[in-house]
Fold this sequence. Notes:
25% helix; six-stranded parallel sheet; 2 domains; FAD/NAD(P)-binding domain; elongated
Amino acid sequence: MHPTRTTGVKLYVRITNTKYMSETDGESAAKSDPQRYEVAVIGGGPAGLSAALYTTRLSHETVVIDRGGGRAAMMLDTHNVIGVTEDVSGNEFLQTATEQVESYGGDVVRDYIDEIEQDDDGRFHLSGNSTDIVADRVVLGMGFSDERPEPPLPRTGKGLHYCLHCDAYMFIDESVYVMGTGEATAHVAMIMLNFTDEVDILTRGDEIEWSDETQKLVEGHPVDVIHEDIESLSRGDDGWLESFEFEDGTVREYRGGFAMYGSDYNTGLATSLGCELNDDGTVITGDHGETTVDGIYAVGDITQGHNQIPVAMGKGAKAGLSIHKDLRTFPKSLDELESEGPVGETEVPGVSPEIREAAEAFADD
């Protein structure tokens, strides 16, 4: 993974690790003995890639295993990330981040990890369709999936949205809907009054589930509750939503809105390892992403907090720093020095040959 650059534009050559990745569609590359890494990151979203960036640049052999897709990859535009312009899509953002990790010496593998077992020596054995890896530390960054309502629906990013803090800005002075029946639906609708005076709640014919107190709040705000289900929709030439037609024949115009039907957290691997969960389904973590299982970290949208790219990146960075402090060779403790003697000149630096080679190549360009 030697980076090459031209003046003004950074380009990276990606070298595929054929030991783990499919050579052709539907074919799996041959497995060998488990590949050893210090850090394995599952999930190639902003949180996982940030963790990998830190552990790689802090001289730890790191692999990212990513199945592709994910919430960030679906973004048509990137919002709220300093230094990244709005015209950058989610896929472009993640591709650049992936290439950065690789340019520093990290490996990135396209696969789905379906099992993690802890070996007798405390290390973790990760198995996937074409992956066989042993790692000292594991970072879980698989995120969650938004629960989608039944069609008819606008296109995601062109009238159907899931992130209030990402997309509310684009709906200033526009007609907006909030779809759902729960507490979050009602509160998001009222929050949207900070941006526009035209907000409807669409229950799609389902019974309201929010509390009596919340109902009083809704009644005290200029929000219309539409109970009829959606019969059809119309789009403009640009693909954006223009209006919904409801079962009673009425037509209402909207620029877009938010679906609030909950989240499906990808915690299967976490629970199989014994990691404890919060009541909302997220993984319980400490300040630096440490879970209730030693050696396992969780970052990003799989944990509690705001589901925002900068927040996810910060969580990944904190986990990466914590892992480095845990794994780094130096400084030795007093007990180690007393039992092993002083550190010899041949023992330093503590960086692996692979990371050193990548660093030298990066510095030469």
